[in-house]
Amino acid sequence: DFEWYLLVLAEIARSPDSDYAEQAASQFSDVAARVAEVRLCAVSLALGLLDRSPCSGATTTAQTGDLSVPPQLAQSKEGSLDIAMPMVGACAWVIGEYNASFEKPAGPSFVKAVRALLAKHMLALEPAIQTQCIWAALKLYMGSAKLDDASIVSELHELLTSQLLAFAQSTHVDVSERASFALHLAAFFGSDATKLEVGNPL
What we know:
This protein is mostly helical. 62% of the residues lie in helices and 2% in strands. Strands 1-2 form a two-stranded antiparallel ribbon. A hairpin with a 2-residue loop joins strand 1 and strand 2 (67-68). Helix 6 packs parallel to helix 8. It is globular, with a radius of gyration of 16 Å.
């Protein structure tokens, strides 16, 4: 059962010093990529691991057959991450790549995910992980045009333009360039869902 396996991998990732963190992160991404049927579970778990908002414990539970996101995955201290760094990158990739798999209506999950991906504590992570988070947030913004909710597009645009500034000022070139590029795209497309939808093939 792949959903059960994803839950096990997520539980392993909650130990930052785990010797199996790299393998868990790699397999989490691999299962999400290879098994389309578990992507709802994968994006829900990924968001549950990254989200550190005060209400995350009540809002990240997503039913996936007989399984749900365990409450303990969302009970971490607000503003902190207690998961292995490789899994942060894996979660960012899964959320960005398979954002269309979020449970409908997906708008609130998109907003929650972008807030989590661009949270201030992400600035303390390794540059490679920061760039993954930035790219995932940009994919959510670009994908929001398909939600048929102009308010979500507008909210994500505001989040990108406000939260990416700190990343753009990073002393790490890759982080700064990725954030600056994302800011330029956000400035170009703005809150116009029609322009975003036309630009998605880019």
